[in-house]
Amino acid sequence: MVNHVDESVGIALIRRIAEKDRKAFEEFYYLYAEGFGRFLMKMLKQREWVDEAANDVMLAVWQMADRYDPQRGRLSTWLFGIAYNKGLRLLERAGRHREESLDDCPGDIDCEDEAVSAFHDAASPSSSGPEQTVMGWELGDAISWAFSRLSADHRSVIELCFNEDRSYQEISDIMGCPLNTVKTRLFHARKHLAELLARKGFTLPGQEKVSL
Fold this sequence. Notes:
Layout: H1 7-18, H2 22-44, H3 47-64, H4 75-93, H5 111-123, H6 130-148, H7 152-163, H8 168-175, H9 179-199
C-alpha cells in the first residue's frame, strides 16, 4: 500500500526541518511515519524493533535534513533508504541478518519478469466463487507464513516492489545495491517462496506441486 504524500509538501517540510523547525518535524512525522513504519514492520517483524528503528529514522531526519537533495531522487526514496539502513543495523546488532547471494540469475531466466509475474499470479485468485474464495484465504495465509520466513533483504525487496510500488531503480537506491542485485534478490525470493508454499501444498507458476 502506497502513501500518497505530496512530494512538494514533504520537501517544504524537510527544508524547515533543516532550519530546526520542530513544528515541521512533527508534521513530517505524521505524514511519513505510517509508510516507513509499515515497511519496517515487514522487514523486522517485531514491534519493539520497529519502534526503535522508527525513532532512529526520525532522529536521522532531524540531524541530516540539510543533506537531502531533491535533484538526486524523491524524498520518500531517501527516507526509505534511511529506514532500511536503520533496520539492517538493528538486525545485525541482534545477529539476525544474513547477506544474500549476489550471484547473477541463471542466464536463461528473466529475473525481473519471472519474479513479478509469478508473485502476482500466486497472490491473485482467477475466480471469485465460494470455493475459490476459501482457496484464496488459505493461499493468503500460506503466503503470509512463507513471507515471514524469508530473509530481511528478501522481505524488503518484495515489500518495496509489490506493496510500495517502487521502481527497480528506486529499490536499488533504497537498498544501496546495484540494479542487477535487486533483480537477483527478487528471483531468489520468488524461488524461496515457491519452496515454502510447496510445503503447504501450493505452487507458484512453473513449480511442480509437492505433496507432504
